[in-house]
Design goal:
mainly alpha, 7 helices, DNA polymerase, domain 1, 2 domains, about 55% helix, two-stranded parallel sheet, about 140 residues
């Protein structure tokens, strides 16, 4: 029977080997799939440890008395320290340092718009900071 099928298909020796390999791989795959469906492996990963770690890392830090004092009124950018500038939203250590350097080289800011001359202060960031800062 296999001989007649082989003659009818007229396969070369290499084609027969490839066909045999593909058929064997298919049957092995079906066997593995049947085994996995018959004996499902229960996933037993405990997410509680990673959830609590994530919750503790993403919790908002409590405000200290220092942080509350920073925004009692508008911050005078001509007298502000580096730490006070860093406490402003959107201002990091590098931008705070640039503000201080600009103030040292060019003198006190005359208006809030002068802050735009500092690299890293965009119009959008200045609009965000406007209620929190002032020039006295």
């Amino acid at each position: 029977m296999f001989r007649r099928l082989q003659d009818w298909l007229a396969l070369t020796a290499t084609e027969r080997k490839v066909l045999l390999f593909v058929t064997g791989a298919f049957v092995a795959g079906l066997g593995i799939r049947l085994y996995q469906e018959t004996f499902p492996k229960e996933r037993s990963f405990d997410y509680s440890a990673s959830d609590s770690a994530f919750a503790s890392l993403s919790a908002a830090p409590e405000e200290t008395a220092e942080a509350k004092d920073v925004f009692k009124g508008p911050l005078d950018i001509n007298k502000a320290t580096k730490e006070q500038l860093i406490a402003l939203p959107g201002i990091g250590a590098v931008t705070a340092e640039r503000i201080l350097l600009y103030r040292d080289h060019h003198g006190p800011f005359q208006s809030l718009e002068d802050l735009r001359k500092v690299r890293g202060i965009s119009k959008r960031k200045l609009d965000q900071l406007r209620p929190l800062i002032a020039v006295f």
